[in-house]
Amino acid sequence: MSGILDGKIALITGGTGGIGKATCKRLTKMGARVVSTYLGESKAVEMREQMKEQGCNIAIYPCDVSDFDQCQALADNIQNDIGPVDIVVNNAGITRDTTMKKMTAEQWQAVINNNLNSVFNVTRAFIESMLERQTGRVVNISSINGQKGQFGQANYSAAKAGIHGFTMALAQEVARKGITVNTVSPGYIATEMVMAVPEEVRNQIIAQIPVWRLGKPEEIAALIGFLASEDAAFITGANFAANGGQHMH
Ligand code: NDP
User: Fold this and answer.
1) Model's pTM, two decimal places?
2) Backbone φ, ψ for residue 15 (5° rounding)
3) Is 76 exposed, middle or buried (0-12, 13-18, 19+ CB in 10 A)?
4) N vs C: which end of the chain shows fewer Cβ within 10 Å?
């Protein structure tokens, strides 16, 4: 595995979270120089220490991906400090679950801004450099709930479904320039977000998953690593479900 991404620079947004951390590790092991973003300073310090202990040297920049100007500044800073980014993994995301009857405009907008507008903001900041260099990989992290919908998640399901529309449109625009754009749609993964759900509810979720367990962040990271590699050059505009068979589309 080592060496497949040698010389590549990879940006993973939301690298302090469960799937983000596993992806930072995976891409580093594959040889990439990995850069990530953080919102909360304390989580960033913790992540830097954890990664160092595991032999991963990750550069981590503050950036609110829901803010267009901060993403532009991020692109300039990475370009100046490290170099041109070859791989963008749009992974940062949030939930604000509630039924439509109770959903506030703030809850709707927060999820659309952080999960969907962020994908535009980040990709827009890096795509021109990829087009100029005629090489690049964009991997957008959606969700099983963007494919099937989910009770209490009209905001999240809408944002996550929108991500794949974005993937398919951009994939067509940039395919001739050697850039691929794909979506990964994880099912329920054992990250803090899911482990915070009461055990009883978690067991009800697991009962609906044919493989009878939650996914591991490393399993999502492995798929992202493949899509970021040269071996995946013929795959673009695709949506990869990794959900233990919970939803087959
Ligand atoms: P976590 O909650 O563990 O991590 C989310 C990450 O996103 C954190 O690093 C967080 O930063 C960051 N983030 C959130 N908003 C912003 C923002 N505006 N700007 C910058 N960073 C931001 O989530 P997971 O690892 O579980 O999920 C990662 C992705 O996978 C998400 O897009 C999620 O929707 C998707 N997903 C997860 C599933 C699961 O079962 N876990 C299932 C399907 C999809 P900070 O901590 O600093 O706030």
Assistant:
1) 0.97
2) -70, -10
3) exposed
4) C
Q: Token pair of 58, please?
A: 């990750």
Both structure tokens of 155: 């905001």
Summarised one tens digit per residue, pLDDT across range 7-22 is 999 999 999 999 999 9
Summarised one tens digit per residue, pLDDT across range 74-108 is 999 999 999 999 999 999 999 999 999 999 999 99
Comparing C-alpha atoms, which of 112, 243, 89 is closest to residue 181? 89
3-state SS assignment for residue 179 = strand
Token pair for 192: 């803090």
Are 146 and 160 spatial neighbours (Cβ–Cβ below 8 Å)?
yes
Report how far residue 35's alpha carbon sits from residue 37's, in angstroms, rounded to the nearest whole number: 7
| Residue 16 beta carbon below 6 angstroms from any ligand 1 atom | yes
* Side-by-side strand order, sheet with 136-141: 59-62, 33-38, 9-12, 87-90, 136-141, 179-186, 239-242
Hey, which of 94, 197, 205 would you mutate to test ligand 1's pocket, going by the most ligand atoms within 8 Å of its Cβ? 94
Radius of gyration of the chain (CA): 17
Q: Note if 61 is an active site residue.
A: no
User: Of 38, 61, 156, 188, which is the active-site residue?
Assistant: 156
Burial class (CB in 10 A: 0-12, 13-18, 19+), 39: middle
The one-character DSSP state at 155 is: H
